[in-house]
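Researcher: I'm preparing a figure for a lab meeting and need a structural model of a single chain. I don't have an experimental structure, so a prediction will have to do for now. The sequence is pasted below. Please return the structure as tokens so I can convert it later.
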Amino acid sequence: MTAAITAILLAGSRPTPDPLAVAAGVTIKPLVPVAGEPMINHPARTLLSHHAVGQVIILTQSADPFAADPATAWLMADPRVRFEQSGAGIASSLLALLERGDVPFPILLTTADHVLLDSAMLDQFTGEAAGADIAVAMVERATLLARYPASRRTWLKFRDGWWSGANIFWFGSDRAKSVIALWQEVEQDRKKGWKIVSAFGPVALIGTLLRILTLRGGIARIGRRFGLVAWLVAMENAEACIDADKVEDVVLIERIVAARG
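Model: Understood. Here is the structure written out token by token.
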């Protein structure tokens, strides 16, 4: 794969103060120190060092906090990094960015709190997502609990297992905009899985409630409804679904980073 992927790194802030940022005494969550430096530095460096990534777009309300922090000022100087202003929601901000027409596909989207993102995860995800209009990275519960039995995640149950999001998404073509537009409509209910599923029609909703759909089949069915090729990428690495969302997450992440050396 050539260095043609556009990576979008979500680094915005919510309207209410983030507990981790408040505890760390920083203005926004991406600047919270994790393993000795602002958390955003970890996924940013991983993306920039990967052979398949051409540029990194940091989507945030303002670039000023990153420019003002000596530990993240390097992002402003890197020619492969550009900052774009986000709005009230992720989906609406992403749509506005794509409508401008200067963001080339394919696009890989991830988050600033994905501290444990590494090249192996990117290799697997980009390799399996290539050819899809949309792909979503997930981790099955057994994969996580086999390595980190005390880790707590939000799980969605399907016939093929219990799944948690890995905060890595693939938009392979302009056709993905239709699903992003729907994402915008249900964004406020992102923690309520059944409402998101119901937006894709009664068959998907009933199938999920009765546990008769596999997640793989459900994602493919959703794609077909929108005339898209949509795939699940079941991540092999348990760390793919561990993000820096809570204090206990940060403790675990720092332990993993230390073990990696």
